[in-house]
Design brief:
Blueprint: H1 2-13, H2 21-32, H3 36-44, H4 47-56, H5 64-81, H6 90-110, H7 117-137, H8 143-150, H9 154-161, E1 173-175, E2 180-181, H10 193-211, H11 215-225, H12 236-243, H13 247-268
Antiparallel strand pairs: 1-2
Helix pairs in contact: 2-3, 3-5, 4-5, 4-6, 5-6, 6-7, 7-8, 8-9, 11-13, 12-13
């Protein structure tokens, strides 16, 4: 369903034409004069940019349409604050606002792991530096350029990037066509068909051995160990009341039956 909505949305926004730098300047001047229609045209011409940025933050835990919506909020803010005197393309200026809005949303949705304050602060500085450099360079900055801006080593930047994380729901879809979720792709090493077969075989043997016991002892074991899985294990007194004998008699029958089973098992080994 989300994939269809995404495709339809992209189809719709492709109808809005891109603007030249000169047109952006003209629209910025109109926005400064309070022309809301000019602001909306400026926004519409850059909706494709939001989709491009949102795709970089896409992960199974958050909806791509939610990311786009948050990015559009950042785009609208950028259209309000953009000024023709900046002498830069609107898309370059808007990128930082779009990314900031999406990043904040992702952090609020997935920020369930608490990092040490120093590491959180380092990540914020790196993110801020990347946005600043993007506005200046018109492209994403390299680790070397970020390190130089923050007066840090490249190794420190790369180590800090390792702290970044995204929490993903195990029920998140990973394949729209096959309807698979993340949990389906994680192998279960705890399951062993061989062990399951042996457990089934052992249970069957135990039931056969119990069936060879005297009837009263069979009932005692079934009540005391709940072999039929139909109710809670009964106490000695409850079993005695059920069979019409004393609790001590039940205890003796249980011990006798258990000894008999143990002897039979040992003889089979």
């Amino acid at each position: 369903m989300e994939t269809m909505a995404y495709k339809e949305y992209v189809k719709q926004i492709l109808k809005y034409p891109l603007m030249t730098f000169e047109q952006e300047i003209e629209h910025s001047k109109l926005v400064q004069q309070g022309d809301n229609e000019a602001k909306m045209r400026l926004v519409q011409s850059n909706l494709r940019l939001v989709v491009s940025v949102a795709k970089k933050y896409k992960n199974p835990y958050v909806s791509i349409m939610d990311l786009i919506q948050e990015g559009n909020i950042g785009l609208l803010t950028a259209a309000t604050k953009y000024h023709y005197s900046f002498n830069t393309r609107f898309s370059t200026y808007a990128y930082a606002w779009i990314a900031q809005s999406i990043t904040r949303y992702v952090r609020n949705k997935t920020g369930q792991i608490i990092l040490p304050h120093r590491k959180e602060e380092m990540l914020r500085k790196i993110h801020s530096a990347k946005l600043s450099l993007f506005q200046k360079l018109g492209r994403e900055a390299s680790d070397e350029e970020v390190a130089k801006k923050l007066n840090l080593s490249v190794e420190e930047i790369r180590n800090a990037n390792l702290y970044s994380y995204t929490i993903v729901s195990i029920d998140s879809e990973v394949d729209d066509d096959a309807n698979l979720n993340l949990g389906d792709s994680i192998p279960d090493y705890s399951f062993s068909p061989e062990n399951k077969l042996m457990d089934s075989y052992e249970k069957e043997n135990i039931h056969q051995m119990i069936n060879r016991l005297p009837e009263m002892e069979q009932k005692v074991l079934r009540y005391r160990f709940n072999f039929d899985n139909d109710e809670k294990t009964k106490t000695l007194r409850q079993v005695g009341e059920e069979l019409g004998v004393s609790a001590e008699t039940v205890r003796q029958m249980e011990m006798r039956a258990v000894r008999h089973l143990r002897a039979e098992i040992n003889s089979a080994c």
